[in-house]
Amino acid sequence: MFITGNALSFRALEIEPTARVVVTQPQATLVVDQRLVQRGTWDGNGGWVRLVVFGNEALLEAPVFGFDIIAPNARVPVATSANGSTVRQLVGREVEIAPDAVLKCNRT
């Protein structure tokens, strides 16, 4: 899937393991109203992508790189399979990082 706009809204977004999402705008904002499930591959095109989730769950089950993840009402479990993810911000009502997962924060 190619995302070419600066701001897009989804009711729910589920990226499956064989899916690849390419964001062509370096400062895109994606808004998810209900539920996010991240199991696939994202290509942020070298820029930061702001991902805002208003629902109550944002599952990170595969690595993400170059994201601001803002999910103030959501439980955000970061699974072992998301090991090595790099985010600029991670905000959630409840953030749970698996014991053997490594999550890097890069504020630049």
Feature tags:
single chain; three-stranded parallel beta sheet; 108 residues; 58% strand; nine-stranded parallel beta sheet
Helix content: under 10%
**If you compute it from the alpha carbons, what radius of gyration comes out, rounded to the nearest whole angstrom?**
12 Å
Overall mean confidence score, pLDDT = 90
What gap, in angstroms, lies between the N and C termini? Answer: 27 Å
Oligomeric description of these chains: single chain
Q: How many extended strands?
A: 12
- Please state roughly what percent of the residues sit in beta strands, choosing from under 5%, 5-15%, 15-25%, 25-35%, 35-45% or over 45%: over 45%
Structural class: mainly beta
Net shape: globular
- Low-confidence runs: none
Count of helical stretches = 0
Major sheet summary line: 9 strands, parallel
Following the backbone from N to C, one meets helices and strands in this order, namely EEEEEEEEEEEE
What number of structural domains do the residues give? 1
Q: What do these coordinates show?
A:
The protein is mainly beta and 108 residues long. The protein has one domain (2-105). It contains no helices and 12 strands. Strands 2, 3, 5, 6, 8, 9, 10, 11 and 12 form a 9-stranded parallel sheet that branches. The protein has a 3-stranded parallel sheet with strand order 1-4-7, with no helix packed on it. The model has no long low-confidence stretch (mean pLDDT 90).
